[in-house]
Design brief:
single chain, mainly beta, 5-stranded mixed β-barrel, 4-stranded mixed sheet, 3 helices
Length: about 230
Amino acid sequence: MALRVLLPGDPLPSSSQSSSSTILGPGLQSLLPPTTASNGKGKAKEDVMASKAGLMGFQDDAKSQKWWVEAAARRYIPQPPEPVIGIIIARHAEGYRVDIGSAQAASLDALAFEGATKRNKPNLKVGTIVYAHLLSTPAFSETEISCVDAATQKAAGFGELTGGFLIRGVELGRCRALLSPKNPILPKLGAKFPFEVAVGMNGRVWVNAADGEEERLIEVINEIRGRP
């Protein structure tokens, strides 16, 4: 697909809304909720426009089509259900406050972990790194995150990240590319030696490898940052 620049107020091309399973990402917003007006094929029509300037992004997989606007940003803007890497900055009776690099800290419930109950729940310390996904972004309260998959109630890779290295300041566009199933970077590196990786859409990437693999891990970090 040819590159296209969108400015605030520009409509999303009508052809990009033909799929019934279209997911809107950062930089796009719905003008009105889907109406009952028919477009001639029995489908509800929804108007979508760009809310910021940038390149139109597109990703198509077997289940859905994803559209977003790729733009330079100094601060991460939460967009459910994106994955994020956070750092616990405070504890309270019902959970934790987590720094995810956005304007406000996020809220993580103590029960939002696989197998957690009121009597048996994680006891995480301030400074702990967690891999989570965004649940919601209420207008007048903190963003909510969770470490379990909503469909299966399993960890599905989310949870506490121990050891390893946390890479900050990775370009958001590169994070999105690393998360794409078709991106060759991580499989190419994984073919050289085994390592663990968690990619957050908030510009943070966590990597870990066995003892003695520090030099190769540096290669991974440079590749993730996009450095030679």
